[in-house]
Design a protein that fits this description.
Elements (H helix, E strand, L loop, with lengths): L1 H22 L1 H13 L11 E3 L7 H18 L3 E3 L9 E3 L1 E2 L3 E4 L3 E9 L1 H12 L7 H11 L5 H9 L2 E8 L7 H15 L5 H9 L7 H19 L3 H6 L15 H7 L3 E10 L11 E8 L21 E11 L2 E11 L1
Parallel strand pairs: 1-5, 6-7
Antiparallel strand pairs: 2-3, 4-6, 5-6, 8-9, 8-11, 10-11
Length: 342
Amino acid sequence: MRKEILKNLVKTLLDARLHSLQRGEKIVQKIQSQGAQLQKYNTANDNKHNLYRFSNQNMVNTVLRQNLLGELLSKYFQSKILGTNAQWMGQQVRYLISEPIFKDSNKKLSVVVFVYNAFANQVAKTQQDGKVINNNLLLIRMINNISQGAESLNNLLSRHFGKKVEVEPIILKYDYFSSEIFSDNLSGNINRFGTFKKGYTRILNNNINATALPAAKSLQISNKLGEHISQVRANNILNALSSGAQILPGEFLNKGNVVWNLLNNKYLIGYSFEFAGKLPKAVSTARTLKDIRFSGTLKCNTSDNASVLFNLNSRISNISQAQKSNINKNGKFNVRIKLGHL
């Protein structure tokens, strides 16, 4: 009797599972659970391929060609510059890039890629504070080769795709503006320092301005953030400058480009850092080491934070996530990052 009951129960469960798979409920539940896990998750971060078409013809071939273009751009920007200051003296500092974002229509293909270099960014900030124009010849040469000349990268890709192609590299002010670049940089730093604990974690927290800070600093950050949001709402940095608002040096404001300012002058409200694997310099450490660090918040609802003295127009969190695997002589480790932006 008991065997018959178990047999019927297993059969019922299998039938229900097959039925849910056929209806696609498993995929829908997976997407919904991811959204619930990340609170108010902004799915725009996952849209790497935006295909504006009226049919699905040749969609697979289009995505394959876009993936090949993404690999080409990653090799194109895979350059290094030699550090010359005290921190980077004699080191080869490479450019970090994110996965390209494609916007494809019948007449045009736009490709946006984020680029970051720690040494070049530090030099640019120093020169900006000293009112000196940054002249990074390597990066300028790469960008000019993309957009200028008959044999530029844009023209070559346009002939290949049969329509206009525009590649737009955006130089990030900080590495944590992109979860992919941030995870890549953290992975490289773990190899460099041999660990993510103690000193390196303090450096990481000091370099990230989160709103969830001690009360002594929360009001100061809130006032600066409110002043910045008021400038962004004006939708024109020139108006903010002409109105007498104080702009601190080193903010990298591009006076004629609103999109640039929105992407480069935003604030990080929190991050989640997860490490799993084996440290490169810890020979005797277990391979199942796992550590999670969390700072700030991933929730972008300002009404829940009493220290923020203003309200935003949107309540949608801009949360992005990325994962980077690193294989070294002692084993392998993974770095998983979740970032919340305002």
